[in-house]
């Protein structure tokens, strides 16, 4: 793969201090699946009774680990659970061999950790179509199990990175019935990132208790406006998975609690935006706010059409306030639009209204705005009350460099 | 705009020798709409009784000239007709001013040429959202009208270029009832190219006579498998137009003639592929053949998902036989696919079958194939008899260079 020699200019200044989440322990190891000189496997073990929810890629060619997780998730919470993730190889499009690898790994994890195999979840991320050397992972399981620690979540975040240039974590803390409840999550992802799925690999943990079915419903709902509203390159991964585990160690049931939902949403939004900030080759972080659409669904279609347009993304890379390309993207999206009722703003700058450029528009002012690192493009369709916000990055030479040479 | 200093490596060796088409005369001029030192306006005048058909962008933000053409096309053939095209400015998203420009230009063309204003069609291509300096065009109309020649089609092809690196023409000749019938067409386009529309500016002329309604039906049908099966960057223009004029000067009615349809299709296919060969920054021409899909529509969805994937396109640019990304694109397309019944070939090389890499696959052999300039990616879904072929190019640094700096 391409060597990533520098951290994204959009990266947060530092990895956040994540709180210990009672009921979950982590370990990571260097199994040499593909990368040398770094960790590439993480193991998380969850205490008995932990409720687990998951959202996965909708790809028709999804990987063997994704299919295995989806088959297991419907079952009721019971004994302990485990999550094992490797980077470097996605175990996707590997036929029956891929399924066999998942069986071998989950059986071995079950044996070493004492977790029932039906509660062992795996994920693999990296190159598609090459056999996963699962024996390299299996030989590391004793070491991983012996190293489990409730303080090792940051190391776990590093072990699941592929083309990521920084590790991604987010946290929130609230009180329910006077008791502290914590949420901590980690994520990886920077390319093959597009919505309509549970993008990338994301693991979120809370010490709250939560009803299993309600947890799944909550996760699915919040995914729609967080991970399903980001895009780097419009490409959808075969492997990507988002899992949320509620251990109950805090002694509080958060089922249906509004403050918990808000806190969880903030963690999911933070992690999803960090993925965009690590978009392959990204130099600009762009928020696209669509309002006044005929429906929320239409607003999201428009937002994604703008966010995925190579011409919009290259204009942003060139710091060119080329609002004509925003008009183009709205026009092609397929959702309802009326040229003459459109309003477009770059930040606070009114660019276009009434079907044409605003009479007060200053190209110099807009060009100065485009030099910023965090940009907002706001579009009002003038048709109804539908709205959506999506996040993306620019399209640069860096993206070409990383992806024209990924496997060499 | 970016300076285009070199011709696409995929360009044909020379502009084809286009035959004279009885009943149509051309002229071009340098009006200075935006570019300096080159022609930027073309005029074509068609003899009375010419049948004219057109297909236009489906963009919801389409330009004033497109709206004007669409309003005029339904009318029966009658007197002479005229087509006036400028490059450098698209007169799109220019509000009421844009409509006024079209009215001014078509009225002036009518006055100078004697063609009824209802038979004057225009198109504008270039930057979106800036007022069209229509007076610069109008002052050139007398010069254009005086220079009309039946031999000036190549100059017309040059006058409509924007980021194109070569002029595009194609021709075919057949006999009907022992009489020669000729077809000649010109096109421009290299970016903001995606299907589901009449892509770019394309003008095709024949000296056959053809029933007006049947001509429109024929053009619409053939567009689906030619211009609507190409993509450079998945972006859909606000301006683009395809018009076909049948002058009848050959004294032959070709309505419903199968040989004529085949010949017209070959001209349309040739021009559409030339647009891909001039794709912004392109270094590889890629044909994507999809077979075995559940339906033809599904096959086209898969083909376009592969053709529009930035990860597939950058892998091709890097000469990397990264078939995993082809699997990914099929998986995300939304059309029916079964991982385990997929077959993928790069040229004649069997890459993947039965849900995994072929046992005889040689990465070295595939890597050698990818060094070629014209590539074929063949996908069989193994589900049914649906098929489609689409054409695209790779995604390179050249695309970023051209589009990050288009307006500066």
N to C succession of SSEs of chain A: EEEHEHEHHHEEEHEHEHHHEEEHEEH
Oligomer category: homodimer
Write down the CATH class of the largest domain in chain A: Alpha Beta
Give me the count of strands of chain A: 15
Domain count of chain A: 2
Distance between the termini of chain A: 6 Å
CATH fold-level topology of the largest domain in chain A = L-amino peptidase D-ALA esterase/amidase
Binding site for substrate (chains A, B): 162, 188, 199, 280, 403, 408
Subunit structure (chains A, B): Heterotetramer of two alpha and two beta chains.
Catalytic activity (chains A, B): L-glutamate + acetyl-CoA = N-acetyl-L-glutamate + CoA + H(+); N(2)-acetyl-L-ornithine + L-glutamate = N-acetyl-L-glutamate + L-ornithine
GO biological process, one term (chains A, B): L-arginine biosynthetic process
């Amino acid at each position: 793969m391409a060597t990533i020699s520098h951290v994204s200019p959009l990266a947060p200044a530092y990895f956040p201090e994540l709180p210990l989440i009672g009921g979950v322990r982590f370990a990571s190891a260097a199994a040499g699946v593909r990368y040398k000189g770094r960790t590439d496997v993480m193991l998380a073990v969850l205490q008995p009774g932990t409720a687990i929810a998951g959202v996965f890629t909708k790809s028709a060619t999804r990987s063997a680990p994704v299919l295995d997780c989806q088959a297991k998730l419907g079952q009721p919470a019971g004994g302990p659970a485990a999550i094992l993730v490797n980077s470097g190889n996605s175990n996707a499009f590997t036929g029956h061999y891929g399924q066999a690898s998942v069986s071998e790994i989950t059986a071995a994890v079950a044996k070493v950790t004492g977790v029932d195999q039906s509660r062992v979840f795996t994920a693999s991320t990296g190159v598609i179509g090459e056999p996963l050397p699962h024996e390299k992972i299996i030989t590391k399981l004793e070491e991983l199990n012996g190293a489990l620690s409730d303080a090792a979540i940051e190391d776990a975040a590093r072990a699941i990175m592929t083309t990521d240039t920084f590790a991604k974590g987010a946290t929130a803390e609230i009180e329910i019935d006077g008791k502290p409840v914590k949420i901590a999550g980690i994520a990886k992802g920077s390319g093959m990132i597009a919505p309509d799925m549970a993008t990338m690999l994301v693991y979120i943990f809370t010490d709250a208790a939560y009803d299993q079915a309600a947890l799944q419903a909550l996760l699915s709902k919040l995914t729609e406006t967080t991970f399903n509203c980001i895009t780097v390159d419009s490409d959808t991964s075969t492997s990507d998975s988002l899992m949320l585990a509620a251990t109950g160690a805090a002694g509080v049931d958060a089922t249906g609690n509004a403050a918990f939902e808000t806190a969880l949403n903030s963690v999911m939004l933070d992690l999803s935006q960090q993925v965009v900030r690590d978009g392959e080759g990204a130099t600009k972080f762009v928020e696209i706010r669509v309002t006044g659409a005929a429906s929320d669904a239409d607003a999201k279609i428009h937002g994604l059409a703008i966010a995925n347009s190579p011409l919009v993304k290259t204009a942003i890379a060139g710091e060119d306030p080329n609002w004509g390309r925003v008009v183009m993207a709205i026009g092609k999206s397929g959702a309802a639009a009326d040229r003459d009722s459109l309003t477009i703003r770059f930040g606070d700058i009114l660019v276009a209204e009434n079907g044409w450029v605003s009479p007060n528009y200053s190209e110099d002012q807009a060009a100065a705005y485009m030099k910023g690192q965090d940009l907002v493009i706001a579009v009002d369709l003038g048709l109804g009350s539908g709205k959506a916000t999506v996040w993306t990055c620019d399209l640069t030479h860096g993206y070409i460099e990383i992806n024209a040479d990924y496997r060499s």
